[in-house]
Amino acid sequence: MSKIIKIGTRDSELALWQAKIVQSQLEHLGHKTQLVPVKSTGDLVLDKPLYELGITGIFTRTLDIAMLNNDIDIAVHSLKDVPTLLPKGIVQAAVLKRGNVKDTLVFKDNEEFLGSKDAVIATGSLRRRAQWLNRFPTHTITDLRGNVNSRLEKLENSDWNGAIFAAAGIGRIGIRPEDAINLDWMIPAPAQGAIMITALEDDEETRAICAELNHEETEICTTIEREFLNKLEGGCTAPIGALAFIKDEEITFTGVLLSPDGTKRIDVTRVKKLGEHNDIAQYCADFVIERGGKRLMDSIKDADRKTNVYSTKSLTEDQRLLFHEKVKSESTDVVKISLNRIHPRFLKQEIQNVIITSKNAVESLTTNYSAIELQFKNIYCVGRRTKRLVENKIGKVTHTENNAKKLAKYLVEYMEGTEATYFCSDIRLDALPTILSENNIKVNEIEAYQTKYDGVKVNDSVEAVMFYSPSTVESFTQKNNKEIIAFCIGETTAKEAKKHFDDVRVAKVPTVESVIELVNEHYI
Questions:
Q1: SS3 string of 307-350?
Q2: Same domain for 210 and 224?
Q3: What is its EC number (predicted)?
Q4: From the candidates 43, 73, 81, 203, which is the catalytic residue?
């Protein structure tokens, strides 16, 4: 590989150590690399416990954005910090051989306090807090944040009895104190001790290189643990532990869900033969849920809070879990799509220039016809995801732009011929056909789908709304005239929002996850 592989990492000592391990292994394979350190929200906001920040993937979001912007080729993470659902376009490329999975208690003076009624233990982890209080209910837990070195320093300068760390973290950078013991009874975080590499899904060359670093046994075990976490709908805001290991061709899995105060605890253990293990995570999650886990999770989610953020597009559960703790979200599709039947006369012969500006148009075309029937010489589209869908279902895209106006300007300059066929909605923006017509390019518009407004009146508690297209703005404002903060997926959507709202903000990249990032920045 001739290019330099840009390795994204947080800039803490531990994160850099992990990134350098990946760098060393890649260079051993003969590849050139470059480290690109960045700061994350988890590194910057140190005055609150992680579970109070309420953001799944707090340490990974900045690197996700950098990757989607092509500032880095791969990112190196502690796998336990990575959300169970990655942003669209980003995939797990490799998991390195796992290190020590245990939690470690670093104590001061001696261990006699373990038999005492009163003791003070420091941790920023809700899982560690809950398990410690379950075992030592009279002890006091105090918050501890920061990188490994600063946490050890805070312990040294405090009157605490001890603090809990990941054994892998303090071991990897060689600062494990002598006064430390592994907590064999504490079930670790899912994927604790594992280093994971992510890459762009469509970067096949980089993914193939990273695959050479993958450790299959670690991948199997951490996948089970993370699937268990996902099935329980947990993250940084739920006390969930999970550990799988392979021995003698068998996989043993242990999981736990607790209440934050440690008074309630549900455990599960399952052993299966290697190769017959695919149902372990589902079975164990169902076991926990059926024994009170659902009620416990519902109570943790704090259902009494009023909705303050409304999404004009239905969000997945994993997307909802990305929100900051201060966000209580609600989502519905305020725009409904109805695919049209496209008459065969439009496709009797090869079309020289085709314009597609949404995934809905792609779905309409491929619902009506097979790829072989769609004879298009040049396909021009708007958006990376639309391009990916076109190339998966129809054929190669000649050129793509981020918005319709930019695409129109490109077509005026570079399109072959003076005629184009535009597969669009019954409601579409005027910019593209207007620009083309003004430059003597004939536009044949074919209505591929219909956009129907289906907005609802939101509660008075809603103070911010997430918009994903001009039509979502139009639909929302038909039923609502209140002043809100408008969080928009892109500039075209923001332009429409500015007609109705004073405070309009635009995401860094055109993804749902990036809009959520924008919302979280407001509520931190």
A1: CCEEECCCCCHHHHCCCCCCCCEEECCCEEEEECCCCHHHHCCC
A2: no
A3: 2.5.1.61
A4: 81
